[in-house]
Amino acid sequence: MGTREHKRRAPSSTESRRGGPPGGVTRKGWPALAVAAALAATALELHRQGRLWVCSCGRFLLWTADAWSSETSQQLFDPYTFTHVLHGLIFCGLLAWCLPRAEWRWRFYLMVAGEALWELIENTNFVIERYRERTAALGYAGDTVVNSLGDIAACAFGFLLARRLGPLRSVILFVATELALLVWIRDSFLLNVLLLLHPSEKIRAWQAGH
Asked: Is there a domain that residue 11 lies in?
């Protein structure tokens, strides 16, 4: 009995350019869909946890400059937004080191997923109480959903910025931002982490003298 070879159909020029058959989701489009799904799921879960969609003050602002205002963590962006930009710098470096062969779009998705997971953890009652007990955020009651989404967007910006700057300039930017925040709001990303792990009344007193 004879055998018959089946030649695999060569992809058309359209498929070659798009990475798949016409009308389907392109290979480059899957990470974008995954990001959108992660953001939607995060928003819904935060609201289920009891977080408000927007500030209870009844107004929506793109930015509030006073780190000690009751609207911090309630509006879209605030001074602590810059700490989330630093998250993005860190994620970019770590993911490039851990997954050097992964396409950057999928590393971007993992960054969004990681930052979204942190937002969910940060807004649990346990962590909120820990912030109030150990850091300068004495009246902290959790983020609004819109603020959490703004934090994730800031992290994404930091990730993309780090890709453009490269390792050395990203480290310089990280240090400069930390120093600027210490001068501006007497707080920073690393100081926040330090106080969460090892509270210091002297540092809290210094922060209270803003």
From this structure: no
